[in-house]
Structures are given as structure tokens and as C-alpha cells.
Write a structure and sequence with these properties.
single chain, about 140 residues, mainly beta, 3-stranded antiparallel sheet, 2 helices, 8 strands
Length: about 140
């Protein structure tokens, strides 16, 4: 079962799925007043505009962060204007796949992913085939 945590400023709710997080630091580097990995709770959406929060959440490369407007009470999913899948090879990091994917795991289980998915390239992730940020600990070079 996937763990989900929600943090709200009353207008927008940030949804975090820690098992999907690739720990790139894009959230905390881009909006350090909200995303504070060294504090608990680590997401503190008060005092920053809803627009800034939404803009930063949309930059999450793993899809671990999403959001919904409280007035709509549903998770906003970005929809692509085309059906193309785009793959980005991050220097010293994961493969970042943009688009809708149907994944069949080695045990035969199936999983649908939408928006953005990060795949491990270094082989050290404890959440294979997905990236968990382990490449930083092993100083992955490729």
C-alpha cells in the first residue's frame, strides 16, 4: 500500500507519495520556504502564494508531489497535448520518462504511471525499477 501525506494552506493541498520520491531536491531548491527536508512536517505551505506552490509542485520529476485545489477536492493531473513519451537522461541520475506508461514488473504485477516517472540507472535503488536517490550516495558517474 502506498503511503500518502497531504499538506494544505486552505486553498491548495500538496499530496506527497514518499515511495515515488527520487530526492532530486528540485522542490526544496525551488521553493525553500515551503519544502524543508530537514524539518517536520517537511512541507509547510503557509505564507507562500498558492500559485507559487502549484508551479513548483508541477516541476516534481518523479510525480511524488501532486496537488489539488481544495474547492475542487481532486488531484490535478497534468494532461499532455500529445501522446508522445519523452525520455530525459539526467547526468549522474535517473532516466526521467514523461508520459503515460503501463509497467509490467518481474513478478507479473502491472502498474499504470502518468505524468512523470523516474527509473534507476545506477542499480542501487531499493525501490527498483524506480529511482530513490541512491545514485547520490554511490556517486554515480554516467
Amino acid at each position: 500500500m502506498t503511503k500518502v501525506k497531504e499538506y494544505s494552506n486552505g486553498e491548495v493541498t500538496v499530496v506527497w507519495k514518499p515511495e515515488l520520491c527520487s530526492h532530486t531536491g528540485i522542490c526544496s531548491n525551488g521553493l525553500p520556504d515551503v519544502f524543508r527536508p530537514d524539518e517536520k512536517p517537511w512541507i509547510q505551505p503557509d505564507g507562500v502564494s498558492t500559485e507559487a506552490i502549484v508551479k513548483q509542485v508541477k516541476k516534481c520529476p518523479s510525480g511524488a508531489l501532486t496537488h489539488y485545489m481544495n474547492s475542487e477536492n481532486k488531484v490535478e493531473m497534468e494532461s499532455s497535448t500529445d501522446d508522445k513519451i519523452k525520455i530525459e537522461v539526467r547526468e549522474r541520475g535517473p532516466l526521467v520518462v514523461h508520459g503515460e506508461l503501463a509497467i509490467t514488473h518481474s513478478d507479473g504485477s502491472k502498474e499504470l504511471k502518468s505524468r512523470v516517472t523516474t527509473f534507476c540507472r545506477c542499480g542501487t535503488s531499493s525501490n527498483q525499477p524506480f529511482c530513490d536517490g541512491s545514485h547520490k550516495e554511490v556517486d554515480y558517474e554516467k
